[in-house]
Amino acid sequence: MLRAMNAGAAQVQRPTAPVPAQSIRFTTPVVETPGIFILTGWLWRFLRALVLLPVQFPVSVGAVVVSVAAYGLGGWLGLAVLWSVLDLAALVWWRRWPQSFKTHVARRVLATWRRFWVYRRHWQPVLVVSGLAESYLERQYLPQIRGVTCSAWADRVRVKLVAGTAPAEFENRVAELAHGFGAPSCRVEVRGPRDLVLEFPRRDTLADPIDALPVPDEPDLSGLPVGIGEDGEPWRLRLHGTHVLTVGVTGAGKGSVLWSAIRAMTPALHAGTAEVWAIDPKRMELSYGRALFARYADAAEDAVSLLEAAVTAMQERAERYAGKQRTHVPSTRDPFVVVVLDEVAFLTAYHPDRDIRRRAENAIATLTSQGRSVGFCVLAALQDPRKEVLNLRNLFPDKIALRLDEASQVDMVLGEGARDRGANAHLIDPDLPGVAFVKLEGSLAPVRVRAAFVTDADIDTMATDAAGVVG
């Protein structure tokens, strides 16, 4: 027994031979930098900052130089007179030309303040925590802020990327950047190699509802005013030469988009150069304005017949244009036809008759694939963007994403990577109907907009006016 205990003790105390790979450890040599080199580096940075100061901050440097000169010539009295005159001039400028004062003075001062107090102050911790700082040979490299500009509603931070990184790294961190700098959202705009702009809204310019917009005297079918964008500019929806798919849950504001587009077209409808063919399976949305429509259907069989009639008219027009005309010009003979299709899923997925679903899908596919060049447009509204509900999403060049149920649906509607670029349609407040993200054909960046709200009284007035024109 004693022998067994000794054997166990010997077994425990037996040394273990090191693995050859573990016996050698390479470390970075530490070389002390001579003090003269450190002082030279500091002196170089100081002189460079001193030389570039007038270029980077011409107004501030100019104010300091003029103030020193005034003090040298007239003492404190001269300095007081100078600043009194400047303050009076600024006051007159502000009162007489407020927009010019905001552009050239107020927003530049705001941009300088936010550049140093908001972005430079928090730049390193936000980028390190969000994983956008790069390390090489135990040194940390950060993207550089090249400048900050302020508009009426947002800050635009221009950034120079670290060599070897891609803009996609910022696009995948928009939520972290927005929260890090205290902004409602963040969007990334790529301007060139290693050059991008981060856009941080300072406030939500779309928080207030928008009343129905005035009807234009001469509607532009390639840019109908239907609301406003986040930048405060009018949101113009193109219909001529494209097809538009609008997706959103119940109460998200799909009707605002449809009716705002129809409202902007009413002069062309009265003149006969445009027509609306409406399909309203719910019988609750488009039925208010039946007098505005050249054709209207709500029952499934009638709706499919209307779609097939549109296909026939489109093909007849294409046959007349063949070899003679490549683009469509709206006229009373060949009006621009907009097929407004509310709740398209009723015809393509939910109707129990398989033949109805097949015919509707074939007609929609034909219109969206062949109708643009001959003056036919499909403006469709949908709640569920899944492929099994509507597998024709890719035939709609322009897409509008109102409030959605799930994050995954954003990319279904707007295309792959849209949510990474800041199109958080699934996070739209339910109290903001009509707010949406729009992605146009050929553009990667979604734009946040809000459609105007067309009331029942507005629709009644439009329908009455249309009936008076027809009568």
Automatic annotation (TrEMBL):
Gene3D superfamilies recorded: P-loop containing nucleotide triphosphate hydrolases
Amino-acid positions noted as binding ATP in the UniProt annotation, renumbered to this chain: 248-255
A Pfam family this chain is assigned to: FtsK_SpoIIIE
Signal sequence, start to end: none
PROSITE patterns found in the cross-reference section: FTSK (PS50901)
Residues that span the membrane, as ranges: 49-70, 76-94
Domain of life from the UniProt record: Bacteria
Domain FtsK: residue ranges: 232-411
Keyword vocabulary terms for this entry: ATP-binding, Membrane, Nucleotide-binding, Transmembrane, Transmembrane helix
Name of the protein described by the UniProt record: FtsK/SpoIIIE domain-containing protein
Organism field: Streptomonospora halophila
